[in-house]
Specification:
The chain is mainly alpha-helical. The protein has helices at residues 2-28, 31-42, 57-66, 70-74, 81-113, 137-178, and strands at 189-197, 210-218.
Length: 219
């Protein structure tokens, strides 16, 4: 029994030595080190793999609400930023310009309506050599009133368009984040083709079989 035990221990020691030699050879020829180096290269820098990252719709929504354009930045759709900020800048400029014209025409309408000869701001809107007389006063008064209402309407419209651009930027950020993992592979398709319509399938026993068109969705 002692001899059998010693031979078993000797065989186990030989197997352990051979395993250590195999591991040493593997490290020596660079196989294991190459595997470790390859795994380190595949690990994403910064701790995030952008190829598999998907945005969170709720986070994109709140970012877009707090700061216009932040949702598009979070979704990494940077090409949409000129559209968003261009819409904001255009609406702000239109609102400011229309408000300025509204203030000028409002003051001109007030000056032409009163009897004070010292208030003549309306002269800046008259052609060179034109004067306001009793014959044309009513016509110019109506003209200034219409211009005043015109620019006030478009000033208010510019504000509502600005609110609309803001709402669209928020909706776009949320929808874009929600559809980031939407399946658009080739398996999603619709096939349209002819088919034979059986009277048994339509539960119409008194009608014969007919030919129709079938639409099939594959997903």
């Amino acid at each position: 029994m002692a001899g059998l035990f010693l031979s078993s221990m000797s065989a186990h020691a030989q197997e352990t030595d051979s395993l250590e030699m195999a591991v040493t050879d593997t490290i020596g020829d660079g196989t294991l080190s190459g595997f470790v180096h390859s795994a380190a290269e595949k690990r994403p820098k910064g701790g995030r793999d952008w190829s598999t990252w998907r945005p969170d719709p709720k986070r994109a929504l709140w970012l877009a609400i707090v700061l216009p354009g932040a949702g598009q930045i979070y979704n990494r759709k940077y090409w949409k930023l000129p559209i968003v900020y261009g819409g904001f800048v255009g609406c702000v400029y239109a609102m400011r310009w229309n408000n300025m014209m509204y203030q000028d025409y409002s003051q001109a309408y007030l000056d032409i309506s009163d009897n004070d000869p010292n208030t003549q701001s309306y002269n800046q809107f008259l052609h060179l050599g034109t004067q306001i007389t009793s014959a044309n006063e009513s016509r110019y008064k109506e003209l200034f009133r219409k211009r005043k209402d015109y620019y006030r309407r478009y000033r208010d419209l510019s504000f509502f368009i600005l609110v609309g651009v803001y709402a669209l930027s928020v909706i776009d950020a949320y929808v874009d984040a929600s559809l980031s993992d939407f399946d658009i592979s080739d398996d999603l398709s619709m096939h349209v083709g002819p088919t034979v319509l059986s009277s048994k399938e339509r539960n119409l026993p008194f009608q014969s079989t007919g030919v129709g068109v079938r639409c099939a969705l594959t997903f």
